[in-house]
């Protein structure tokens, strides 16, 4: 065996070893995904209250009805001043208004002087000691002075406040009213405008309803300015007493304490012992840092925007929520009630909505229940290094295919040293770059080695398409191994090269096959063929073809990703829903309707010359899409594998139907051109 054969065999062996290491990492990811099948179904508390009011029922009764349909938790957003007042738990007055209200009865001795209620104070008046103490603690935790007074026969007397009393889920021991009139006042010098939008804790009575209904509580905490370690402790202290607390979310685009107080925030989260919530499609500053400190104890939550409720039907909403749970590792679904035109019984409609959603999840193997975060998955650097060597081996094999032999080992040595160095100093960047390299190299390698100048039979074309896909998949496996990390699975860390992974393979294939399409392309090395290409004159037809392909590429990129710039039409959405229903996992349209059929057609005809370049590039979209499917690390591995499988067999069927249609079109076109030419000659 010649040295070049030994060298090639060594590269293939290295690729096989790296694929084994990647498979080991992928198995750990698969195990974590398959063991995490419970989905939390939550509904906002105020929406449950609203449905109770519309139906004339008690809120607790409505909670019990939803629990019977599969609801597992109630979602509470931290109450603001206005929301506390609307709840009926308190009244908000100025010190002056309070004086006018009580001057004829309680006396006025406490409306002047230091430590007394001042006319400009904002006053919260309540009959419940638990509410008064909670409000005072929340205000002081957020850096705002607060004093508590009880109404006594001689006026308002300042209360002694114990360090801790009772529990947040219901009335504390000794919650009897203070004083004869049973009223307490929380006074603060902060104006009402200053307090507007500030979170002031969670009403104990509302939390106690979910406890009585046997539902878990999820709380959403609002951020505030000037966060301190002591303030965080004061704000989180009542949360420790909430019964059946499931998780904590944060309101707004920034977490409290970001960026300097994240360690203090993590300390308080650890005291709760529950995961933090990541709201899908709503990035929040500080969440990734907090998740890192918490060991990726994160629950991904999906919610339908309330504005979407007017657009989507109930069936569409169920499909959307079920898809988020089944295909994006979302384990918390926030369900907003729907109101359809002409519907009289909103409660019955929404009970059926939650019940149908529960059934749809069960059909996907998901069970409503207390959700748990994905297990922490971290790959050792030695394994990542080994997987990266497989990508380097694939790149060297591609260079061998292109005739680069003399400097091949030198390129390999340089790549190995660069990979080791970058992995040591910037591991996340190194992983992203090597994953991008895998996404670029392997589609080019598989297509470059499979497409020949001569055509073949339909059966042989099918074989070549399957073989090409199997040669692309090692790149997907290596990429999965490089990114098999709970941070990527939870979208806390991102693979940032998705668009480039589409563009670069097409550019490389365009250069390679344009060179192959030249007359005498088999003569000379790669750079000699490139020089001949640059010496050729530029024809208008190739400029027009390039413009056409550029437009197709732009549309292609704009339709790529979870949030597409060009959204699908209503008809396409219905078609997607049908495929999802029939096949369990919907294949990608760009694979089974575009890429695979056109690549099969190219195998059938062969790459005869550069007239077939557009067909090649459009056909390559299928292989690029195959590897792109596995770039979505938040999608379960089993779903990605099934999606690729469905795309391949459907693409083969579509391609086999396309061949006779194409031949008929070519035959008809030639016949028409012949008839036109004959008519011109006779004329």
From TrEMBL:
The keyword Cytoplasm does not apply. It holds the Pfam family DUF5693. Residues 1-25 form the signal peptide. InterPro entries: DUF5693 (IPR043748). The chain crosses the membrane at residues 382-400, 407-427, 433-451, 463-484, 500-519, 539-558, 612-633, 645-665. Keywords: Membrane, Signal, Transmembrane, Transmembrane helix. It comes from the Bacteria. This is Uncharacterized protein. It comes from Desulfofundulus thermobenzoicus.
């Amino acid at each position: 065996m010649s040295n070049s054969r030994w060298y090639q065999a060594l590269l293939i062996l290295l690729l096989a070893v790296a694929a084994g290491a990647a498979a080991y990492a992928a198995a750990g990811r698969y195990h974590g995904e398959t063991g995490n099948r419970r989905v939390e179904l939550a509904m906002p508390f105020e929406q449950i209250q609203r449905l109770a009011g519309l139906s004339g029922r008690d809120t607790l009764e409505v909670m019990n009805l939803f629990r019977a349909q599969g609801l597992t938790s109630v979602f509470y957003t931290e109450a603001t001043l206005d929301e506390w007042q609307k709840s009926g738990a308190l009244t908000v007055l100025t010190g002056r208004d309070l004086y006018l209200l009580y001057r004829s009865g309680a006396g006025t001795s406490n409306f002047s002087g230091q430590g007394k209620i001042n006319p400009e104070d904002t006053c919260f008046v309540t009959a419940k000691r638990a509410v008064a103490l909670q409000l005072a603690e929340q205000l002081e935790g957020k850096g705002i002075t607060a004093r508590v007074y009880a109404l006594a026969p001689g006026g308002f007397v300042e209360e002694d406040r114990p360090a801790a009393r009772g529990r947040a889920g219901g009335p504390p021991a000794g919650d009897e009213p203070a004083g004869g009139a049973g009223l307490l006042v929380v006074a603060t010098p902060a104006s009402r405008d200053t307090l507007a939008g500030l979170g002031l804790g969670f009403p104990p009575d509302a939390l106690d309803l979910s406890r009585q209904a046997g539902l878990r509580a999820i709380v959403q905490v609002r951020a505030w300015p000037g966060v301190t370690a002591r303030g965080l402790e004061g704000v989180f202290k009542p949360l420790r007493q909430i019964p059946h607390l499931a998780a904590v979310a944060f309101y707004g685009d920034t977490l409290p304490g970001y960026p300097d107080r994240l360690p203090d925030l993590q300390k308080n989260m650890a005291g709760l012992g529950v995961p933090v919530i990541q709201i899908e499609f709503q990035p929040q500053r500080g969440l990734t840092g907090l998740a890192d400190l918490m060991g990726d104890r994160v629950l991904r939550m999906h919610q339908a925007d309330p504005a979407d409720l007017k657009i989507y039907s109930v069936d569409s909403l169920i499909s959307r929520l079920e898809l988020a749970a089944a295909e994006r590792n979302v384990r918390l679904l926030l369900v907003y009630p729907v109101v359809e035109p002409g519907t009289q019984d909103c409660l019955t409609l929404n009970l059926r909505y939650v019940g149908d959603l529960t059934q749809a999840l069960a059909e996907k193997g998901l069970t409503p229940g207390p959700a748990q975060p994905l297990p922490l998955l971290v790959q050792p650097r030695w394994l990542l290094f080994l997987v990266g060597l497989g990508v380097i081996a694939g790149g060297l094999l591609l260079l061998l295919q292109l005739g680069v032999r003399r400097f091949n080992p030198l390129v390999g040595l340089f790549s190995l040293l660069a990979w080791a160095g970058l992995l040591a100093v910037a591991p996340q960047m190194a992983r992203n770059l090597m994953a991008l390299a895998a996404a670029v190299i392997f589609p080019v390698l598989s297509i470059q080695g499979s497409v020949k100048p001569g055509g073949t039979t339909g059966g042989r074309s099918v074989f070549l398409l399957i073989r090409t896909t199997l040669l692309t998949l090692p790149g997907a496996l290596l990429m999965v191994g490089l990114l098999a990390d709970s941070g990527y699975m939870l979208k806390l860390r991102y693979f940032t090269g998705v668009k480039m992974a589409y563009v670069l393979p097409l550019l490389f294939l365009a250069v390679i096959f344009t060179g192959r399409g030249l007359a005498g392309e088999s003569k000379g090395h790669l750079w000699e063929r490139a020089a001949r290409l640059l010496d050729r004159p530029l024809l208008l037809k190739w400029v027009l073809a390039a413009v056409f392909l550029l437009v197709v590429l732009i549309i292609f990129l704009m339709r790529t990703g979870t949030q597409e710039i060009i959204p699908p039409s209503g008809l396409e959405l219905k078609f997607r829903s049908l495929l999802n229903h029939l096949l369990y996992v919907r294949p990608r349209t760009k694979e089974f309707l575009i890429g695979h059929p056109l690549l099969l057609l190219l195998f059938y005809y062969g790459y005869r010359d550069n007239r077939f370049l557009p067909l090649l590039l459009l056909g390559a979209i299928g292989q690029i899409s195959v590897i792109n499917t596995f770039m979505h690390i938040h999608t379960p591995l089993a779903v990605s594998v099934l999606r690729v499988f469905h795309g391949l067999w459907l693409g083969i069927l579509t391609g086999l139907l396309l061949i006779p249609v194409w031949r008929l079109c070519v035959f008809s076109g030639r016949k028409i051109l012949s008839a036109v030419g004959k008519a011109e000659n006779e004329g």
